[in-house]
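User: Modeling request: complex.
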Amino acid sequence: SQQGEEDPQALSIQEGENATMNCSYKTSINNLQWYRQNSGRGLVHLILIRSNEREKHSGRLRVTLDTSKKSSSLLITASRAADTASYFCATSGTYKYIFGTGTRLKVLA
Amino acid sequence: GAVVSQHPSWVICKSGTSVKIECRSLDFQATTMFWYRQFPKQSLMLMATSNEGSKATYEQGVEKDKFLINHASLTLSTLTVTSAHPEDSSFYICSACRTVETQYFGPGTRLLVL
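Assistant: Request completed. Predicted assembly structure:
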């Protein structure tokens, strides 16, 4: 399966700063989802954006989608130490979800 | 929200033994479930799509005889790692589809093969 690419691979910021992660994918999609994973744990669903949507907000999260460039970004505003985790995008064309390589975010208190 | 459970949460076994991992959707029926494998500090790699009442669909490079999948009911899929070897040590995660857009993940099973 073809994975999406995420950048940066790792990101370290101070508490209160914003964190931006980018995801690029290769095939056409129905929707794109972002997940968070704390070390060694399961996945937490953050937000879903459909292919006909360009931007979505949920609390401190803002997701954009550019289907012409096959890319998406996740912005976390006013980051907290508890946001420290790995973040993955996952694209869906049909039922299958293909995960990106992930961004490891570390928020320093 | 919907709940998906996995059992066991972790397992240690000797090389050559078989290990069965269960994935259950607790409050909804799922005709489709997925099995993923995740190595340390890497992303989730889709192994196979499990369809209730039919054979699983395996991704390229995944040995179907090594990773046996059974989806006997609308709430249960099992993954059996046969003749496990140390290189099979990994974090195995399942997910269950409630709708085309909604996929709920289990908490994962950590397998260590000695």
